[in-house]
Write a structure and sequence with these properties.
Helices cover 39% and strands 11% of the residues. With 219 residues, it is of the alpha/beta class. The protein is globular, with a radius of gyration of 21 Å. It binds pyridoxal-5'-phosphate (PLP).
């Protein structure tokens, strides 16, 4: 057994995926940008005035009073059960018809993207993303050993024609097709564009034809 220099600590035990990202700021160096005119293109920072601080404080207070034994317990309580129904109602308001048993609640989009990757990806599988895209998602795809390729974005969102050409040429030469296409169709990060309806429909047709999953990120 090789003796490690104690001053190395435990870094030599880190996984390759961690080692590869060491030394680079995971979410970019936006914190060091002091110019007031600079627009950080990493996170889609929510508008602070839109934070429902008072409503959240009141809801937390009410929940802890009404379900003191269960609110913080594993599995939640009555309200946790009701949350999926609430998600279904809100989705329906936006034209998405889904059932509560198809809703999986996560603590944020990052976790949801990771869960989708765990569900569908083997190392080496290909993920198509919009170019440019949200870099947090790129980090997750890389952590799952995915090969990431980009398709350009224009004023109407993902260039679905370019994607269709790419998929067709893969089919012609018998190359592997992507498992996932990751898209941010509304107010895309970082470009801010929204995907045209006909492109959305075309993307779904392509997903059926070439058998891939569309991972829609709608923050
Ligand atoms: C497109 C997109 N997806 C996901 C996230 C992260 O979401 P969450 O904080 O819910 O994990 C961001 C944050 O900026 C984002 O812009």
């Amino acid at each position: 057994m090789t003796q490690q220099d104690p001053s190395d600590g435990i870094e030599h035990l880190f996984a390759d995926t961690v080692r590869d990202t060491m030394g680079s700021a995971v979410y970019g160096d936006w914190r060091s940008i002091h110019n007031a005119d600079a627009v950080p293109l990493a996170f889609g920072f929510p508008y602070p005035e839109s934070f429902p601080n008072e409503e959240l404080a009141a809801a937390t207070d009410s929940l802890l009073s009404s379900e003191p034994e269960r609110a913080l317990q594993y599995g939640g309580g009555d309200h946790a059960d009701g949350l999926r129904d609430l998600v279904v109602d809100r989705a329906r308001d936006r034209g998405i018809d889904c059932a509560a048993e198809t809703v999986h609640v996560t603590n944020g989009a990052t976790r949801a993207i990771d869960t989708v990757c765990r569900t569908f990806l083997e190392p080496g599988d290909e993920v198509v993303v919009e170019a440019p895209t949200f870099m947090g998602a790129l980090g997750i795809f890389r952590n799952h050993g995915a090969a990431v390729t980009g398709v350009t974005v224009d004023e109407e969102g993902l260039d679905v024609d370019a994607l269709a050409d790419d998929l067709a040429s893969r089919a012609r030469c018998g190359a592997a097709q992507p498992k996932l296409v990751y898209t941010i169709p509304d107010f895309q990060n970082p470009t801010g564009v929204t995907m045209a309806t006909d492109r959305r429909e075309r993307l779904l047709d392509l997903a059926e034809r070439y058998d891939f999953v569309v991972l829609e990120d709608d923050p």
